[in-house]
Amino acid sequence: MAKTKCSICTVNDASRVGEHVWPRWFLKLMDSQGKPPTAWSKNGNPILNSRGTQIALPRRTRVFLPVCQACNGKLAQRFEDPAIDTVTQLSTNRWLGGHSAAEWQAVGMWWAKIGLMLGHADARYEHRKLNEEAIRFNSSPPEYKWMVDGTAVPVDLSVFVHHSSMDAGETEAILGVPEHIALSNGAFRVSHVFQIVTPNVAVAVVSHPGLTVVHPLVERGEAWELLRGSPSNGDLAALPLFGHRRVVFRQGLVAHEGFQIDSSETSRLMSLIAHEAEEVPEVYPRLTRSQARNGVRERLASGVRRVLGLCRRSEGPAHRHDRES
């Protein structure tokens, strides 16, 4: 039987059982603090077991990803080693405490690694029901090789964090992230969003090729983007405490390169139309590379023009949020 290939480099054979997405040192540290403080939910909805009750487990769930020994070592060197001391201090203090910009950037890299690997199509949860319900990047995956080949962090990868309770709270803004982006060279790219909530911090890992993100809390200094805007001596305790759904990222349909993701009506309508499209897939089909090669591009581009035309009419000519590339 053929061995499973590494999910990161896609070349070498993966280890037999796979590697921990949440590192073992972190799982051991968290389990030493007691049982997980909350039960499991997906998009705000409880995940139920066969008895109809919300799943609550005695320890943190292990998640495994097929990774080769070489990539596992490189992941540890680039993401785990620089962050382990700061993550240890933060996670044992409800993610509170002052740290330097470099330390927070290392934490942002760590969260980026966790979010991207949790969303990988090959990620497997040890709990059967949680594995069935897991959110994964099942269409076109993000690029993973940069994580181990020494290249720079993608400029279109962002990690947003805000000081958060475990309550959903009031939603201030829905940021519609176009799922498919038509680049100026005629190619298409796919965006990815993975949101994580743990006591005192809400994390959004967003891959947004060809797009810019204007986060309302970051703009007001009430949240941080950790990869390029890490705070100096930052402490989450100094930020306002919001519910974890204060700002929600919701993937939408298609947009052209240069589209701005923000709290405008354009962005919101993009996400709402996509939400409706999920119920009518024959009207708004998911774009794949093979479909694009078979002439679907123009049909989708026509749909984009209609969507953006609707948004512009709803906002008036003074509020144009799609910028020239």
* CA-based shape: globular
Query: How much of the residues is beta strand, in percent?
Result: 15-25%
- Please give the count of helices: 9
Q: Determine the fraction of residues in helical runs and give it as a percent range.
A: 25-40%
What is the CA-CA span between the terminal residues? 48 Å
Given helix and strand content, the structural type is: alpha+beta
Mean pLDDT: 82
- Strands of the biggest beta sheet: in what spatial order? 10-11-6-13
Task: Provide a short characterization of the protein structure.
The chain has about 325 residues and is α+β, with helices and mostly antiparallel strands. The chain is built from 9 helices and 16 strands. It is about 30% helix and about 20% strand.
Care to describe what's here?
The protein is α+β, with helices and mostly antiparallel strands and 325 residues long. It is 31% helix and 18% strand. The protein has nine helices and 16 strands. The chain has helices at 24-31, 69-80, 84-91, 101-118, 128-133, 146-149, 216-219, 265-277, 289-315; strands at 19-20, 41-42, 45-46, 63-65, 124-125, 157-164, 173-177, 180-182, 188-190, 192-198, 200-207, 212-213, 224-225, 247-251, 254-256, 260-261. The strands form six sheets. A four-stranded antiparallel beta sheet has the order 10-11-6-13, with helices on one face. Strands 1-4-5 form a three-stranded antiparallel beta sheet. The radius of gyration is 20 Å and the shape is globular. The model is unreliable at 273-325 (pLDDT under 50).
